[in-house]
């Protein structure tokens, strides 16, 4: 399967496309399309906020991947996501992220919410779920 166009990713997020399973498989194996997917979610959430339910569904899918890590390619996508998310958390905890935000406050105000923000939100829930499953 070739890379996904932005239009296709938007159709996927809005659930107006048929071959969603095929696209999902590609998203989980392709770093650049995963990045595009996150950008689309970010834009969609900002403009109309129709996709939070879908994002949750996707995160649940990611959770299943953690519980049953059977395929190397899904692990690779998961690791990619975990690194991005973990890096964001690390920056936040160390206060670097906050410092940068304050330093560029005026410019940031005019920009859309960042992917990092989106990741932070989802990572929080994700980590909590992982903790819960680890105890069981
Ligand atoms: Zn791709």
Structure in words:
The chain has helices spanning 6-13, 20-29, 31-47, 52-67, 72-94, 96-103, 105-109, 115-135. With 136 residues, it is an all-alpha fold. The chain has one domain (6-135). Helix 1 (6-13) packs across helix 3 and helix 2 (20-29) crosses helix 3. The mean pLDDT is 72. The chain binds zinc ion. Residues 3-4, 26, 30, 32-33 line the site of zinc ion (ZN).
Q: Which short descriptors sum up this protein?
A:
single chain, mainly alpha, 8 helices
Summarize the topology:
Elements: H1 6-13, H2 20-29, H3 31-47, H4 52-67, H5 72-94, H6 96-103, H7 105-109, H8 115-135
Helix pairs in contact: 1-3, 2-3, 2-5, 4-8, 5-8
The structure holds zinc ion.
* Low-pLDDT residue spans: none
**How far apart are the termini?**
38 Å
Q: How many individual helices? A: 8
What ligands does this structure carry?
zinc ion
User: Structural class, judged by helices and strands?
Assistant: mainly alpha
Order of helices and strands: HHHHHHHH
Helical residue percent band: over 70%
Rounded mean pLDDT score? 72
Strand segment tally: 0
Q: How many structural domains does the protein architecture include?
A: 1
Q: Name the beta content range.
A: under 5%
Q: Tell me the Rg in angstroms.
A: 16 Å
Biggest sheet architecture: none
